[in-house]
Amino acid sequence: MSAVYALKFTGLPHVPIWLMAMMSGVFSMLITWRLLPTWWRAVLLVLPLAALLSLSINSWWWLFAAILLMAFQWNAIFTRIPLYRSDAMVAQALVDYMRRDQQKSLLDLGCGDGRLLWRMAQALPECTFVGIESAPVLYAISRWRCRNQPNCRIWFGDFWRRSWAESDVVFAFLSPEPMLPVWRKRLREGEKHAVLISLAFTVPGIEAGELLPAHQFDMHLYQADHHAVVGKEISDDEFSR
Ligand SMILES: C[S@@+](CC[C@H](N)C(=O)[O-])C[C@H]1O[C@@H](n2cnc3c(N)ncnc32)[C@H](O)[C@@H]1O
User: Fold this and answer.
1) How far does residue 120's CA lie from ligand 1's centre (Å)?
2) What is the pLDDT of residue 239?
3) Is the pLDDT at 11 greater than 50, yes or no?
4) Percentages helix, strand, coil for the chain, rounded to the nearest 5?
5) Which of 84, 94, 118, 183 maximizes the CB count within 10 A of its CB?
6) Share of the chain above pLDDT 70, in %
7) What is the pLDDT of residues 125-156, one digit of tens each?
8) What residue segments make up the domains of the chain, in order of their start?
9) Ligand 1 centre and the CA of 153: distance in Å?
10) Which residues contact 197 (CB under 8 A, 6 or more apart)?
11) How far, in Å, from the CA of 76 to the mean position of ligand 1?
12) Diameter over CA atoms, the chain
């Protein structure tokens, strides 16, 4: 923005501030074109204009927006796992898998607003579903959504602090970071045939037993009794620690 502002002193005609903001956006986008991931281009393009527009908004709205955001996702500051929701295709693929392999129970690690569990609990009334969620507002929404679903329970809290042993299938849609500890906990606590299904994110160094296609992303299915360690990144000894 300051580079564009400097143009004012080069003898160019008066440039309105909104035009400067737009030009700054274009500049920042071009400068970082090859340096940053693609989605940053759109962000950088609109950021200076958004910052300019924000000056005219009453500051109480910012406070309100911050409180609203914290109410939904304060835990993301610590867990670095924000809310993204799985769509109906994911629910359907999980239901098909549970029917095929005759699985009876599923735990959703970080169940968000509970919609995924609610869909599955409706489709498979003979199975049981559990969700754990640490964001208070999302937990409340999940509880409310699943209130008439007797085969679905929602717990409040940190999924690392609870046992996952009771569920045949553990489902995760988290981020790349916690995947190896998630798989380790699953192996420590699960039965011989314990299953972990991760949407979008793989367990580093471990070969998935199967890929379950689910529209946008694949789901990676890991099974305790035949996990294969890929390459030398993680040895079996190291793995079982
Ligand atoms: C990407 S969302 C997935 C939501 C849902 N499972 C789905 O597939 O639609 C991840 C969720 O995990 C929750 N979460 C992250 N870390 C958690 C933790 N340690 N304990 C409980 N919930 C957690 C977040 O608040 C967020 O709602």
Assistant:
1) 17
2) 47
3) yes
4) 45, 15, 35
5) 94
6) 88
7) 999 999 999 999 999 999 999 999 999 999 99
8) 2-79, 88-239
9) 15
10) 94, 97, 169, 170, 171, 172, 212, 219, 220, 221, 222
11) 9
12) 76
Q: Are 156 and 134 in contact (CB under 8 A)?
A: yes
Structure tokens at 78: 């610590």
CA 42 – CA 52 distance, rounded (Å): 16
The one-letter code for the residue type at 158 is D
Q: Which of 164, 171, 204 is nearest to 188 (CA)?
A: 164
Instruction: Give 47 Cα–ligand 1 centroid separation in angstroms.
Output: 28
| Best residue for ligand 1 mutational test, from 74, 81, 87, 138 (most atoms within 8 Å of Cβ) | 81
Q: Which helix (H) or strand (E) holds 46?
A: helix 39-54
**111 CB under 6 A from ligand 1?**
yes
Token pair, residue 32, equals: 């970082």
Handedness of CA 227, 190, 130, 78 (dihedral sign): negative
- Tell me what the pLDDT averaged over the chain comes to: 87
* Angle (nearest 5°) at CA 97 between 92 and 103: 120
